[in-house]
# Entry
Amino acid sequence: MSESKRSTWGSNATFILAAIGSAVGLGNAWRFPNLAAKHGGGAFLMVYLLAMLIIGIPLLMMEISIGRKMRAGAPGALRGLNKKFEPIGWAATSNAFVIVTYYAVVFAWVIMMAAFSFKFINMTGDNQAASSLWSTIIKTTGTIKGFDTISIPVLICLLVAWGLIYYCIRNGTKSVDKIIKYLIFLPVVCLGFMAIKGATMPGAMQGLAAFFIPDFSALSNPMLWVDAVGQVFYSMSVMMAIMIAYGSFLSDESNIARDGMIIAFSDLAVSLLSGIVMFTTMYGTNLEEMLAQKSGPGLAFGVYPTAIVNLSNSGVFNAIFAFVFYFCLCTLAIDSAFSLVEGISTAFSDKFGTSKKKTTITICAIAGVISLIYATGGGLAVLDIVDNWCNSFTLILVGVIETVAIGWFYNTNKIIGEINRNTKKIKMPKLWFDIAVKIVAPISLSILFIWNIWDLFKNKGGIYGAADGYNITSNVLAGWAVFALCMLSGFIIPLFARKKKNNGDSSSED
# Structure
């Protein structure tokens, strides 16, 4: 796609809101509070803030600046820096594609829970009914079995989810420009409402104390540091082809140094607000121990409904609160979902010279069909395995390779120049950037990758989820094979593009 034909953000504010929307997702709502509960509350917050400043912000600015400088999605932009870097961009793009296939199903579950929130009216104090509502509706077996069954409510909500994702980006930046302001501020309003309710509950002050007051003894636990670095990395939407794509639509007048700070601290603010909601609600309903034990879908769909039915003696109020909570998750999920598709679509339309709209439709259709597997009875188990490999292995390894490539085999002065091009006050210091990209990021991410490998083989016997009934075959097919395909895609897709060009299709890139 030529620069003259490339769409741009309607305003710099639209870009900032879109980037915040991508960064702020379901992980802010359930993974961040869970990690804070596991690792000494304020102690985790301190390490997270440190990791965000040292690693997160420099990498975020780096990717945005590369996108703007090269006016291309992740593979094309990295190729623009060095032809040998293109496979890194395709590995990131392929991993994003895998992630969006199951993220859409999680989005569908959230839509479903919002739609079924009326059921909480008759569940006041009934912990068993509340905690099993989600698993009953999705008809999960909890194991690698039951692929011949599918939940109709989930299927309907999945179609709605994909319809909403496509609608939000059907015309690229123009579509996003019209809706992003609502999608960003709605979750903040919802979280604010829930935080006020949580603050009025008995035990709320204990919850806030547990969240904000550091348990300094937790700092000696290496897992705190591993989880904090990992959460920063996941939360910032870096190494997923998103921020490079978003940066490619930026105007030359934009201030990347300032915008990167705004995006990072806005992401942190929503995480803190989500933490306040979770801690006050869980402590207020005497379920605080479950906050540290459960994460992800288990926390949002299993444990939190139990807290909801114990909020008050009014089933109607509890149902309204449930709807607000799951509607809030809907608004958090959709931004991240369509940003993943946008990053993928940008990469392929740039490479093959196809219409952006046609490419987006194709990607949504293919990803939508693949996502059906997660709507089956055995889909939750597959999702668990795929998610583990995408985030614990592929994403981390892409981060290691990308930071080494840019930090050691490219002139970082050019990146710094692009970041600081239009700023006078807030600048990215060269020393800070070089230390982050050349040393801290690759070393910390390498340690994280090695730790995950060691944990899998040393603590889990080489089979992830063995205690839940997963076997070696499921690990190979849904884990290692997906990992290998993502990493090899960096070489397969360029070869396919060259073959297509040699066959006479001049629309594709070299």
